[in-house]
Design goal:
Layout: E1 3-7, H1 10-22, E2 29-30, E3 35-37, E4 42-44, H2 47-54, E5 59-60, H3 72-85, E6 89-93, H4 101-105, E7 111-115, E8 123-124, H5 127-134, E9 138-145, E10 154-162, H6 169-192, E11 208-209, H7 225-234, E12 241-245, E13 248-258, E14 267-271, E15 274-278, E16 283-291, E17 297-298, H8 299-305, H9 317-321
Parallel strand pairs: 1-2, 1-6, 2-5, 6-7, 8-11
Antiparallel strand pairs: 3-4, 7-9, 9-10, 12-13, 13-16, 14-15, 15-16, 16-17
């Protein structure tokens, strides 16, 4: 089976590696254009492109696949490249571009998407983040037959994963990426034997996992402690939590909900386990912090360099953003 692969980040690279390890023929990879990254802001290839080049696979990087759009010439060239690849199926994982109908119709068996959610729970760009933020007990991988809608296609295979109390987006991402790689090779084996049975998504329970915005890092201390703790785990590794203490921007990476009450943002106590900060309901103990330009530190090391005193105020998100 000839498999064209479309994907960009590490999540997608894990799936591509699984396809190659199983021996599927991959004549072409689609991925996002190289982006500036790092302190020098040099152009950097996506993890998927890097893996494809290591295996000698041709790579196409159009800025759009719309034949009537701003980058129509690039889309037309990508179409010619896809036609020449003569794919039986396209596997899509976190590609980052909308696939127009001509793309969906091109492969013999259509386009299969690896989606990191139990559809239709979290459609959209950030399903892992939003599942943790919402306090979901489970998430998983859904393999979907793509259609023109946003994650609305028929479901082909689904597998559940528990969300642990300590899971961050980083840790859950890695488990789901590995699961997605295993499931897609199994699905293609089933497809070769006509063993996949599409199931229409339920109309109930639809949520949209909107893309993470950097501004969401600002902590609203009037929220309850459990909600703040979940958001910190959801926003690790990006964008983290951010608040201002005595005019200094402090990144907050880890916290735990603890008993306590007081003015939201006020430091209630400080010991070697970390400062306790009042929230709208209960409090949080901060356990991993970072100063501007510094490294992420466990709270004991952080407090040696930057003491925090009882009564100090972490500024509310609205004030910090002003």
């Amino acid at each position: 089976m000839r498999v064209v692969f479309a994907g960009t980040p590490e999540f997608a690279a894990t799936a591509l590696q699984a396809l190659l390890a199983r021996g599927f023929e991959v004549p072409l990879v689609l991925t996002q254009p190289d982006r500036p990254a790092g302190r020098g802001m040099k152009l950097q290839a996506s993890p998927v492109k890097q893996l494809a080049l290591q295996h000698g696979i041709p790579v196409s990087q159009p800025r759009s696949l719309r034949l009537d759009g701003k980058f129509a010439d690039e889309a037309a060239l990508a179409r010619d490249t896809l036609l020449a690849a003569q794919a039986d199926v396209m596997v899509v994982a976190a590609y980052g571009l909308i696939l127009p109908q001509w793309t969906l119709d091109l492969p013999t068996r259509g386009c299969l998407n690896i989606h990191a959610s139990l559809l239709p729970r979290w459609r959209g760009a950030a399903p892992i983040h939003r599942a943790i933020e919402a306090g979901d007990a489970q998430t998983g991988i859904t393999l979907m037959q793509m259609d023109a809608g946003l994650d609305t296609g028929d479901m082909l295979l689904t597998e559940r994963v528990d969300i642990d109390a300590a899971d961050t987006t980083a840790s859950l991402h890695d488990r789901l990426a590995a699961l997605g790689g295993r499931m897609i090779v199994d699905a293609l084996d089933l497809a070769a034997r006509d063993g996949l049975r599409p199931v229409v998504q339920p109309a109930e329970g639809v949520s949209y996992a909107h893309k993470i915005d950097k501004a969401e890092a600002l902590i609203d201390w009037t929220q309850d402690a459990a909600q703040i703790e979940r958001r910190l785990r959801a926003f690790d590794p990006f964008p983290g939590g951010l608040s201002h203490l005595e005019g200094e921007a402090i990144k907050i990476w880890r916290a735990e909900a603890v008993p306590g009450s007081g003015r939201p943002g006020c430091v209630l106590s400080v010991d070697e386990q970390g400062p306790v900060v009042a929230c709208g309901q209960q409090a949080v103990r901060l356990t991993e912090l970072q100063r501007a330009g510094g490294k992420r530190l466990r709270v004991s090391a952080f407090l040696q360099a930057r003491p925090i005193v009882v009564g100090a105020m972490f500024e509310p998100a609205a004030l910090a953003a002003a």
